[in-house]
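Hallway conversation turned thread

IA: we were arguing at lunch whether anyone had actually written out DUF1330 domain-containing protein end to end. Turns out nobody had. So, for the record, here is the sequence (100 residues) and right after it the structure tokens. Reply here if something looks off.
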Amino acid sequence: MPAYWVARSKINDPVEYKKYTDQIPGIIARHGGKVLARGGRYEILEGPDKFQRFVVIEFPTFEQGVACFRSPEYDAAAAFRRSGAGEVETIMVDAGDATR
């Protein structure tokens, strides 16, 4: 069953943050992920307006998505944004029936 990595972020330092985002597509692809949305137009319909960038990535399984996030290569890339270049909230969610 597919799973989705959903992230929302606030970019504080675009130059440093780009060092992170330049590496991410290759890392995601190596873990079987496919970027469905990355940046682009958005409208906040409900909730805080702190975040200005939204990302949705599909993985074949929940486990592959979590493994990507926890991989040493992702951790090394994320160090650029974790140093203060950005603030991010990330979740992994299974596709599936919402009636469970």
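OS: looked through it. The CA atoms of residues 3 and 62 lie 5 Å apart.
IA: good, adding that to the notes. The chain has four helices and four strands.
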